[in-house]
Write a structure and sequence with these properties.
With 127 residues, the chain is of the alpha+beta class. The chain contains two helices and eight strands. 17% of the residues lie in helices and 44% in strands. The radius of gyration is 15 Å and the shape is globular. InterPro entries: Anthracycline_SecMetBiosynth, Glyas_Bleomycin-R_OHBP_Dase, Glyas_Fos-R_dOase_dom, VOC_core.
């Protein structure tokens, strides 16, 4: 199901956005963009790597299973159908399909509790 799906982003939960911006931007030299409010009153950051995989930084406590969260970028199909298929195979769904910055996302866990996510751009709204 995911063999041909590109990893589009790695999401990292951080405690301090300014400190994160300084480290990843000034120390590591990644181009950091402030992406504004995530609807909860927090700014979030985005950094593009040379390989095209985005790094996303959100201020919040680490989620169960920790951070980072690997995000699979769906280019076609229906995100709801993907989540339904995962659930039918016994996968633990951590968050249902919901709006995310720029589209739709859902989270699920691997057998060890590590969080994985799927993202579908807004132009490809789920059915």
């Amino acid at each position: 199901m995911f063999a041909t799906t590109r990893i589009g982003a790695v999401c990292v939960y951080v405690s301090d956005i300014a400190r994160t911006r300084a480290f990843y931007g000034e120390v590591l030299g990644l181009p950091i963009q402030s992406m504004g409010d995530d609807d909860s009153g927090n700014d979030w950051l985005q950094a593009e790597t040379a390989g095209g995989v985005e790094m996303l930084f959100f201020k919040q406590p680490a989620a169960p299973g920790g951070s980072p969260v690997i995000i699979f970028d769906l280019k076609t199909g229906d995100i709801a159908a993907v989540i339904d298929a995962l659930e039918a195979r016994g996968t633990e769904i951590l968050s249902p399909v919901s709006e995310a910055p720029g589209g739709w996302s859902a989270e699920f866990a691997d057998p060890d509790g590590h969080i994985l996510s799927v993202f579908q751009a807004a132009g490809l709204r789920p059915a």
